[in-house]
Design goal:
The chain contains 8 helices and 12 strands. By secondary structure, it is an alpha/beta fold.
């Protein structure tokens, strides 16, 4: 898409741990994000014409659902936690995380102390405390299991809640498992609750418009090529 041609897309990019690697990815894809200062909460790309906004990853699914933005990048787990994943279009998975050298793929697991006798989430006793950042996802999971647990909201460092006895279990995204090993923790069961990663999502209204859809698809392909280069 040449400069000045086609619709101007609006994309919302994540702040936090994915912020720097996402900006680096766009640079590698020859789509430099321009801003007047590092503190500015919006930017733009000249070619193709794209308006760039920034938001917490947890807020991005909602911004797409309300059609405030055409597309956005966040973790698949954030889309699931929002309860809106079925109402968004997952355009493609983007295999990067905190840096471009890692895939960003994680597993959502129930974690416990290594010396806990429980071997699977189905064996957790009713009334147990479960610490997590993903409150709604955890609640849905344990409701499906038919186990009434107490969900405790954390703001990071969920493992610490289990290590220090503030909660019997955690509901946490696990990447390499190194933190669990270092703190005598383990995952329950043979399979994770779900697998997550970074993805490009679109709102259905924009996706239904041919020009917008083509622009979003081209954007996704450019980013994927940059990752794989």
């Amino acid at each position: 898409m040449r400069k000045g041609q086609g619709p101007q897309l609006r994309i919302v990019l994540p702040t936090g741990t994915l912020h720097d690697s996402t900006r680096e990815l766009f640079g590698l894809a020859h789509m430099r994000i321009r801003q007047h200062s590092e503190r500015q909460q919006e930017g733009w790309i000249d070619n193709p014409p794209i308006h760039v906004g920034y938001a917490r990853p947890q807020d991005i699914p909602g911004l797409l659902h309300t059609e405030a933005e055409d597309c956005g990048i966040c973790g698949i787990d954030c889309a699931i936690e929002s309860g809106l994943v079925a109402q968004l279009v997952q355009v493609c998975e983007l295999e990067y995380g905190k840096t471009l050298s890692v895939t960003g793929r994680t597993k959502l697991c129930v974690i416990a102390r290594r010396d806990d006798s429980v071997q699977a989430a189905e064996e957790i006793k009713p009334g147990s405390r479960v610490a997590t950042e993903l409150v709604d996802t955890a609640r849905r999971h344990f409701d499906q299991l038919g186990i009434a647990v107490t969900i405790l909201k954390t703001h990071g460092s969920t493992e610490s809640w289990v290590v220090n006895g503030w909660a019997e279990y955690g509901f946490e995204l696990v990447e390499s498992g190194a933190t669990l090993h270092a703190n005598a923790l383990r995952t329950l069961g043979d399979e994770p609750v779900l697998r997550s990663g970074t993805a490009l999502f679109a709102n259905p209204d924009s996706w239904a418009r041919q020009e917008k859809r083509q622009a979003i698809e081209q954007l996704g392909e450019c980013l994927r090529q940059a990752i794989n280069a």
